[in-house]
Amino acid sequence: MIIVETISGGVNCTTEEYEGDVDTYRGDIQCIKCKKKAWFVRSYKTEKIDRMACFGAKHKDGCNASTILFSSDDEQSHEENAQSEDIRVDLDKIGSQSIYISEPNNKHGDEESDWTASKKDKAIGNASGFPLNKSLRQLLTNLCKNPEYGDKGQTINIVADSGVSMIKGLLSDHIVPLNNIKREHAGSRKIFWGTINNLNLKDGSLWLNYGNYNTEPSIILDQELRFDLLRNFKLKDVSELDGSDVIIVGNVGFSPRGKATIKTGFTKYMSFRRRKRED
C-alpha cells in the first residue's frame, strides 16, 4: 500500500506525508479497506534492490489493498504432534539473532508495486516437532500462527541463568496478548506478545508501540537496553522492527491515564518475528 488512512479521522495519508510528519501519523494509520492497523516501511536499497516506501498491514482475508508480499522467515515452518506438549524455555541457551539490514533511499511512488516473492519452506524443531526445550521465538511463532495455542492445557517453565523459574504453571495463565492487557495483569511477571506497529525514542528510551503511543500498550527499553537490543539482535537501525511480532517476559504497569507499559530486565527475555518484504 502507498496510501492509508488515519484511525482518528479517516484522512488519507501517503508515504511522503507520513515520512514528513511522523509524529502526527505514528500509531494512527490503518488500511483504508479492511481497517487493520498499518505500519510504515521505509524505502531502501541494497546492492541488487531499490525499493520505494510503502505501508504494511496484516490484512483481513479477502482484502485486496495489499499489493506487496510481506512474510516472516518462518512463514512455512511447522510442528507436528506438539500442540499439547509442556514447554520449557531455558534463557541461558538463547543466542543472538540477526535482523535484515538495508540502507534508506528516500524513494516514494504514486503507483502500487505489483511484485511478489515465493515463500521458502523452513522447519523448526526436530523431525517429530519441537523438542522439549523451546525458545521464546518458537513460542511466538506458535502464537502468531494460532492465537489459541496457549489454550491446550500445556504447562510452561521459563528458567533463568541461575536455574530459578521465572514463570511456571499453565501457559494459559501467563500468556497475555498486547491488545488484551488489563489492570489485573499488573503485579506479576507475564508473557506478553503481539505486533509492533510503530516505535519512537523518548528521553533516550525506545518505545515499541502496539498502536497509539499515547493510549495503547508499549514496551519500554531504557537507553542501556536499547543499545543491548541493537547489539544482541545485530540491528543497524531499530526501525527494522516496525511491523514485527514480539514476545517479552516482563511486568506491566499503568500510567495515570491508563496506558499500559511493559518493562523487562534483559533483551534475552524478548524475541521478534520480523515481517519483511521478500526479495
- Average residue-wise pLDDT: 79
CATH H-level homologous superfamily name of the largest domain? Nucleic acid-binding proteins
- Beta-strand portion reads 25-35%
CATH topology (fold) name of the largest domain: OB fold (Dihydrolipoamide Acetyltransferase, E2P)
Class by SSE composition: alpha+beta
Element layout with pairings:
Blueprint: E1 3-6, E2 12-14, H1 15-20, H2 22-25, E3 29-30, E4 38-41, E5 44-45, E6 50-51, E7 54-57, E8 70-72, E9 87-90, H3 136-145, E10 155-159, E11 165-170, H4 171-174, E12 175-177, E13 190-195, E14 198-202, E15 205-209, E16 218-221, H5 223-232, E17 245-254, E18 260-263, E19 270-273, E20 275-277
Give descriptors for this structure.
279 residues; alpha+beta; OB fold (Dihydrolipoamide Acetyltransferase, E2P); eight-stranded mixed beta sheet; three-stranded antiparallel beta sheet; 12% helix; 30% strand; globular
What does this structure look like?
- The protein has 279 residues and is an alpha+beta fold.
- The protein has 2 domains: 3-68, no CATH class; 73-99 and 119-277, OB fold (Dihydrolipoamide Acetyltransferase, E2P) (Beta Barrel).
- 12% of the residues lie in helices and 30% in strands.
- It has 5 helices and 20 strands.
- Strands 12, 13, 14, 15, 16, 17, 18 and 19 form an 8-stranded mixed β-sheet that branches.
- It is globular.
- The two termini are 17 Å apart.
- Residues 78-82, 95-103 and 113-133 have low confidence and may be disordered.
